[in-house]
Specification:
The protein has 400 residues and is of the alpha/beta class. It has helices at 2-21, 226-250, 253-262, 266-292, 296-334, 341-356, 361-399, and strands at residues 30-34, 38-39, 51-55, 59-61, 69-73, 77-79, 86-91, 95-97, 103-108, 112-114, 117-118, 122-126, 129-132, 137-138, 142-151, 159-168, 171-172, 176-179, 182-185, 190-191, 195-199, 213-217. It is flat.
Length: 400
């Protein structure tokens, strides 16, 4: 059953790629598909808008890029030039990062080797091994999912994720929080803020010299399956994609553009979201107090508040995603490129689900998205009321 679902996803992705390359499609990306070795230095593109580069041969990134992009290859991918911004790499073979990067997101069926400086959080999903070599420097967090993870360089932030075997041979200045079956630490290894491991290995022990440690034995299987993980992400995003399509069908494009214009002030959205959240919490608490006093108002407040919180929890990703899609579309229009809202939404919603699935940090991201979604709804309501009030005043003035 799982294999059939994975096959369906692969076909859907393949059809999406084919659609991007047809003359009938509206390209959302600066997109190129090649049947030869791809070198960035031989590409005359300006890389002004998000791009994709898909090659049936290996990919060599030997020229600096500062725009968001995606590189896909069934063979190896090697980075030898500095990269700024977010770049995603998907390979069925080895991925080597030999230069400085800012936000690498790596998916590999083979091994991943990092030799350069990474300025921000690093996301790595591998079916082989992840090796952080001596010359590397991870400035923030390393979020990793792989059967084997080897740390040979200093890590400034935390290490989070899942692995069967974790090998630490250097200093981790943050904390290690992982699900792992084996943890091996060399004499030079040290974790400044402690190590927390969830494991099925009842015999697992950690050297005292590495720092404060905590081991929780769990019954869940620790075997890492990237296919099942990605299937779960895709399935979770699918429902939100369907809801976005319904919004796109019933809401006029002009209306969505106006919504994006109204919500340009991010501070206002965040402020309204925080105030509304605490208001709902206060209503729930007040409802419980009134319920104890056996008043009908308490029941009404509880049902209304909890119902709204549940609805917002279900719809938060699609609300936040719709807002992001409109903002991204504006960027495309500024770059004189015609956007495709559906494809933008699919990518945006999958990325949101991916970020929310990150161990520990994911819960914080979910909460932030919830607050922002609540703020978006409240901001729209308030702005509509202000607009109606201004129109009423204008009518009074004209009457006089």
């Amino acid at each position: 059953m799982v294999k059939n679902k994975i096959g369906a996803i692969i076909v859907a992705v393949f059809l999406c790629i084919i659609t991007l390359n047809t003359s009938f499609a509206i390209e959302i990306f600066d997109n190129k598909t090649l049947n030869e070795v791809y070198k960035v230095s031989g590409d005359n593109s300006e890389f002004n808008v998000p791009f994709t580069r898909i090659s049936s041969e290996r990919i060599e990134i030997d020229k600096s890029i500062s725009q968001m992009g995606l590189f896909m290859s069934p063979k190896s991918i090697e980075v030898s030039a500095p990269l700024k911004g977010i770049q995603a790499f998907y390979s069925n073979d080895t991925v080597r990062i030999n230069s400085d990067t800012e936000y690498p997101v790596i998916f590999s069926s083979g091994n991943v080797v990092i030799n350069g400086v990474v300025e921000n959080t690093t996301f790595v999903y591998s079916q082989g091994s992840i090796t952080i070599n001596e010359n590397a420097d991870i400035k923030q967090n390393l979020i990793c999912y792989a059967p084997k993870v080897e740390i040979n360089s200093e890590i400034t932030g935390n290490i989070l994720g899942y692995t069967n075997s974790l090998n630490i041979n250097n200093v981790v200045n943050g904390k290690v929080k992982m699900q792992a079956y084996e943890v091996n630490c060399s004499e030079n290894a040290k974790v400044e803020k402690g190590i927390e491991i969830n494991t099925t290995n009842t015999a697992l022990t950690i050297n005292e010299n590495i720092g404060e440690s905590k081991i929780d034995v769990i019954s869940k299987k620790s075997k890492f399956e990237i296919k099942e993980y990605l299937l779960k992400i895709f399935t979770a995003a699918l429902g939100n994609i369907v809801m976005f399509l319904l919004i796109l069908i019933f809401a006029k494009k002009e209306r969505l553009d106006k919504i994006a214009e109204k919500l340009q002030d991010g501070k206002s959205v965040l402020k309204n979201g925080i105030i509304s959240y605490f208001l709902f919490i206060a209503m729930i608490c007040f409802g419980i107090v009134l319920l104890v006093l056996l008043t009908k108002l308490g029941v009404v407040l509880l049902i209304f508040s909890i119902a709204m919180m549940v609805i917002m929890t279900i719809l938060k990703n699609v609300i936040f995603g719709t807002f992001l899609v409109e903002l991204v579309n504006k960027r495309y229009e500024e770059a004189q490129t015609k956007p495709n809202s559906i494809l933008t939404a699919i990518m945006t919603l999958i990325i949101i689900e991916l970020l929310e699935s990150i161990p520990y940090l994911g819960e914080l991201i979910k909460f932030i998205v919830f607050i922002l979604s609540l703020g978006i709804i409240v901001s729209l309501i308030l702005k509509n009321k202000n607009k109606q009030s201004d129109e009423s005043k204008q009518e009074v003035i004209e009457t006089k």
